[in-house]
Amino acid sequence: MKLSFFGAARQVTGSMFLLELDDYRILIDCGTDLDSSKEEREMEYGMFPFDASMINLVLLTHAHIDHSGQIPNLYREGYEGQVLCSEPTVDLAEILLYDSAGLHQRRIKKIQKSGKLSKKYKSIETEPLYMSNHVKIAIDNFVPLAFNRRFKFKDNAWVTFIPAGHLLGAAHILIEYEKDGGIESICFSGDVGRKNYPLLSDPDPVPEVDYLVCETTYGQRRHSDQDDPVDKLKQIIQENCIDKPGRIIIPSFSVGRTQALLYTLNKLYESQGIKPIKVFTDSPLARSSTEIHEKYSRYLNEEAREFKELEEGLFDFENLHYLKSSKESAAVSSHSEPCIIISSSGMVQGGRVEHHVAENIENSYATILFIGYTTENTLGAKLRSKDIKELVIKGARKEVNANIISTDVFSGHGDLDDLIDFIDQQDPEKLKKVFLVHGETDSMLNFKSIIEEKGFKNIEMPDWGEQFEL
């Protein structure tokens, strides 16, 4: 076996790993790389650092764009095989990839209007911007597999998708390979979910393997907010919509995070006796994702399934309004009564939420509630800086008078304790090698030192493009 790392190598983005079983090539994840060095790599290697037509199979851990976002380009570059994943991942990946294609279409129109191509591309046709037709080709080749069922994908190799939490349909991927009369095994963690998360079941245990590829996003952090999500949300609403007649703007990712938030609001209104304040969900993608969560509710945790049976729905409650048009979205920013506006993106980087923040940032009765991670240099990260007094948004300089608060009770990532629990399922004496990925270098180093103390050896932190003989 050979294993090469072409993404999520000392960074939290662009998951992409190439596993070679003799002459059979498997790509595990094919995600969008947001790292600043990506452009230099494309200059040297092209869209992919391998011949896409030589890949035999793609295995997808989950639908998030940093794991799935380059799959249409893989087909565009000559891949003709299948993408195996869980059933919910097919539907979630479809809406996310079509949404990306829409963004690409708008970018192409902008390029055509300005006449300015990227320096490394000679024409629009060579830009790495796939369209809806490329998404359709890709989705037509997605094949859903059931969780925890061993599937034979070649004469001497099997794959099993194991529930990982984190997102509806997310999986750890276990590959077993018959070699010299014995079986060698490798597990790719994908993104490890956290325990007791709204909607989602806890991650399933993973069997002992020979090789482990483990994410380290929270390799040096624990979730700071340990409150029950319902209690935390009740407190925030009480302080910012009831004690004072204000509005709450919540930047939220449309797939996964918004559904956990809506479900928690539904439980809060049903059980806590708070008068349902108007909630506006301002994201067409979020509405599609919500419908998919309802469709696949059998994959959710027992509490969510029981709640759905009792209330005949997970996300519908009094005073919930889905906004469709841009005109409706613009009107809500000046809504006169206390309300909650949930909109994408979670990092306040483009999307309708940028308008809502711009319209409310100078309002001392407004609160901006962050419920997820924001990368450096995004508007979200700047807003969360405690000493910020003003910033430029939508081309205008504005004073920051709104109340800026954060909670990580809705983070879908397992923290340091969850990662330790994940790796503790392995036998340090049996595990031949551990590869740490999907984390910043400091996070990896901290996690590496912790598991070394537990007796784990041969721990690698691969660089981009590095290959290992297994």
- Whole-number average pLDDT? 92
Shape verdict = globular
Would you count the extended β strands for me?
Answer: 22
Rg value = 22 Å
* DSSP summary: helix tally: 14
Short recap of the structure:
This protein has helices at residues 38-45, 65-68, 71-76, 87-114, 132-139, 229-242, 257-271, 284-295, 302-311, 326-332, 353-360, 379-383, 416-423, 441-453, and strands spanning 2-5, 17-21, 24-28, 57-59, 83-86, 142-145, 151-154, 157-163, 171-179, 182-188, 211-215, 247-251, 278-282, 320-322, 339-343, 366-370, 390-393, 396-399, 403-406, 433-437, 459-460, 467-469. It is α/β, with parallel strands linked by helices.
Folded structure, characterized:
This protein has 2 domains: 2-221 and 412-469, Metallo-beta-lactamase, Chain A, CATH 3.60.15.10; 229-406, Rossmann fold (3-Layer(aba) Sandwich). The chain starts with a strand and ends with a strand. Helix 4 (87-114) runs antiparallel to helix 5 and helix 4 runs antiparallel to helix 8. The mean pLDDT is 92. The chain is α/β, with parallel strands linked by helices. The strands form 4 sheets. The protein has a 7-stranded mixed beta sheet. A 7-stranded mixed beta sheet has the order 7-8-9-10-11-20-21, with helices on one face. The chain has a 6-stranded parallel beta sheet with strand order 14-13-15-12-16-19, with helices on both faces. It has 14 helices and 22 strands. Helix 14 links the parallel strand 20 (433-437) and strand 21.
